[in-house]
Amino acid sequence: MTPFPELQGRHALVTGGARGIGLACARALAGRGAAVTLLGRNIQTLEAARLSLAGEGITVGVAAADIAQAAEVAEAFETARAARGPIQILVNNAGQALSERFDRTSAQLWEQMLQVNLSGTFHCTQAALPDMLQGGWGRVINVASTAGLIGYAYVSAYCAAKHGVVGLTRALAQEVARKGITVNAVCPGYTETDIVREAVDNIMKKTGMDEAAARARLAERNPQGRLVSAAEVADTVAWLALPASASVNGQAIAVDGGEAAA
User: Fold this and answer.
1) Residue 259 backbone phi and psi in degrees, to 5
2) Prediction pTM value
3) Which residues contact 158 (CB under 8 A, 6 or more apart)?
4) pLDDT digits (tens, 9 = 90+) for 17-36
5) Cα 257 → chain centroid
6) Per the database record, which ranges form the Ketoreductase domain (predicted)?
7) Three-state SS for 153?
8) Domain annotation for the chain: domains and CATH numbers
9) In what side-by-side order are the strands of the sheet with 11-15?
10) What is the set of active-site residues?
């Protein structure tokens, strides 16, 4: 692989990096020259992802942490920093979506959605930002969701958390605008990931639909009539990491075929 010069020598850390959008982001950033660290909860899954990328000629580091735990995040970021230098690009991709009718949503489910999707983004950004401030350059890219822009029934806790991520993005972007750092969110629609596969299983269980019909129900929300690919989301993330995107700050960019524009 011949890396592009734009991100040569930049250290990018991707949370939830072992699969789906996170793994695609790692591939896209490495392809543009970044030194990449994958972060996730399960070291075995991370090692499997590392070996998979190695088979493609991509070398990455791994670090394990539960992003909902600030102490674990701080330790994992220090491990990544020691191996590959200051963290200059942070992709807050780790997330989880659980579905439940609002009146049946337990306090535990509510807190879990906030901890994983919103507080995790907070912890990781706080851990990475000092490197960016010291270096006078940085990119924070939050993988939110169209659920951070519009509402969806039966995922109120997830929507609340992702709206929070978009709000955090916009607020922090204002704080660091004069410091060489940009903060943006990418908001995918239904994307070919484990979360969508779980949604398909849930639809099948509750409606009796077969897999093809359940997938079609999700795809029909996209005006293009299809699911988004992880690579499409990753290419948007990688573009936001480039020096050429320096004037793009505080934005929530939908990658959804036009769903949020309706």
Assistant:
1) -60, -45
2) 0.92
3) 97, 98, 99, 113, 117, 145, 147, 152
4) 999 999 999 999 999 999 99
5) 18
6) 10-189
7) coil
8) 11-189+229-257 (3.40.50.720), 193-227 (no CATH)
9) 60-64, 35-40, 11-15, 89-92, 138-143, 181-188, 252-255
10) 158
